[in-house]
Specification:
With 188 residues, the chain is an alpha+beta fold. The chain contains four helices and five strands. Strands 1, 2, 3, 4 and 5 form a five-stranded antiparallel beta sheet that branches. Helix 2 packs across helix 4. The longest helix has 27 residues. The radius of gyration is 26 Å and the shape is elongated.
Length: 188
């Protein structure tokens, strides 16, 4: 009789603790303006904090545009979008080895967006690794006979009204291009 009471009490405690944990987790993960940090009320019991894309969900796409010039003083080509296409299919959930390159470029473009939004010094930006990565991707997309190129990062807001859909983030200076070294060639 006593063991049934203990088992029932333990079961009720476990159900109550699980319910309290679930309710606390839900309350902890509501938008910041509607809750307080509940961890101070849990006596050290950890509450997961899942924010995923909140409080700043992705509402824009960053595109890389390039234009080239074949010689000094020549009219530049029109801007063209060289953002890598990413195929989305059901197999990418399990196997997607091609995702790393576009993800690295996307992350670099995002970093340049942050630098631009924070009014970073342009000289400092041009010496940064994200800038060098975006330049390398631009160089790879340039025509073989290009003497110089310029790239532009553009935010595209798909859900905005048409007149507010695009916002330039960063435009590089014209960058002179030398010959592309042959694969395996060394310099110096």
């Amino acid at each position: 009789m006593l063991s049934e009471r203990i088992r029932g009490a333990a079961g009720a405690f476990a159900v109550g603790a699980l319910a309290a944990h679930l309710v606390s987790t839900v309350l902890q993960n509501t938008p910041d303006s509607y809750n307080q940090d509940l961890r101070k009320f849990t006596g050290g019991w950890p509450l997961p904090g899942w924010r995923f894309f909140a409080p700043n969900p992705g509402v824009q796409n960053v595109h890389l545009l390039v234009r080239e010039s074949t010689s000094y003083g020549a009219a530049p080509t029109p801007w063209r979008d060289v953002t890598p296409e990413v195929d989305h299919g059901w197999t990418q959930v399990l196997w997607n080895p091609e995702s790393r390159g576009p993800k690295a470029l996307f992350d670099a473009m995002q970093q340049l967006s942050v630098m631009s939004a924070n009014q970073a010094d342009f000289g400092w930006v041009t010496r940064s690794l994200p800038y060098q990565l975006v330049f390398s991707a631009s160089r790879a997309a340039a025509a073989d006979d290009s003497a110089a190129l310029q790239f532009l990062l553009m935010n595209v807001f798909p859900s905005a009204p048409p007149e507010q859909r695009m916002k330039p983030i960063l435009t590089s200076e014209w960058i002179a291009l030398g010959p592309v070294p042959a694969e395996g060639a060394t310099t110096g």
